[in-house]
Amino acid sequence: MRIGIFGGTFDPVHNAHLFLAESARLMEGLERVLFVPTSGHHYRAQPETALEDRCAMVRAAIDGNPFFVFDDTDLRDDASGYTADLIPALREKYPTDAFTFIIGADSLVNAQWVRFDEVLESLERFVIAPRSGVRSEAVQRVIAAIPSNLRERVRTLNLPELPESGTLLRSLLSQHHSIRYLVPDAVWEYIGARGLYGHGAAQPA
């Protein structure tokens, strides 16, 4: 089986995440895409929302797609939060499957990667989605630094630049703007019911 791995803080999960995962599934011939939330404990900018809420929103967002699967491997007590440690842990669950890692260009360029060569060696493919505000030159600089024997595993998906980001959505909510239709309905309802991101406890209209 060919499995996609899509990780992140998902703070909150939004429609661009779902579009990217589904596009990668179809374009790369994946039979399953794992949504793998991380606690984010080693990130400089900590998630604004509790892990329990972020996981609940991911579960709600992917519920209608039979090819999307929630995976809690990166939430185990011994999880480091680094991709280089995540993939061997997933390999224990899926010992014979081929892995494709799915990532937005912003995460590729801005993240402090640990043991990146080791990550690429463990994958069949590492696929990158264009993101609004991330210049292609910045992506190419990262790719050019990859050893030539691993570079063929990396590809950029032929997709439009995706403008949505967790930062944008959190900013809109903090200003009491609606993000309905930028997130799945179930996520929008959850945010309103729980009063997340300063949205208030009132049910969304």
Tell me what the structure shows.
The protein is an alpha/beta fold. It has one domain: Rossmann fold (3-Layer(aba) Sandwich). The protein has 9 helices and 6 strands; from the N terminus they run E-H-E-H-E-H-E-H-H-E-H-H-E-H-H. The chain has helices at 15-28, 51-62, 83-93, 105-110, 116-121, 136-144, 148-151, 166-174, 185-194; strands spanning 2-8, 32-37, 68-70, 98-104, 125-129, 154-156. Strands 3-2-1-4-5-6 form a 6-stranded parallel sheet. Strand 2, helix 2 and strand 3 form a beta-alpha-beta unit. Helix 2 (51-62) packs antiparallel against helix 9.
Within the largest sheet, what's the order of strands?
3-2-1-4-5-6
Please give the CATH class.
Answer: Alpha Beta
Strand tally is: 6
The third-level CATH topology is Rossmann fold
Instruction: Tally the structural domains.
Output: 1
**What is the CATH architecture annotation?**
3-Layer(aba) Sandwich
| Largest sheet composition | 6 strands, parallel
Series of H and E elements: EHEHEHEHHEHHEHH
| CATH superfamily label | HUPs
* Unreliable sequence segments: 201-205
What is the helix tally? 9
Helix content: 25-40%
End-to-end span in angstroms? 42 Å
In short:
The protein is an alpha/beta fold and 205 residues long.
Question: What order do the helices and strands come in, and which of them pair?
Answer:
Layout: E1 2-8, H1 15-28, E2 32-37, H2 51-62, E3 68-70, H3 83-93, E4 98-104, H4 105-110, H5 116-121, E5 125-129, H6 136-144, H7 148-151, E6 154-156, H8 166-174, H9 185-194
Helix pairs in contact: 2-9
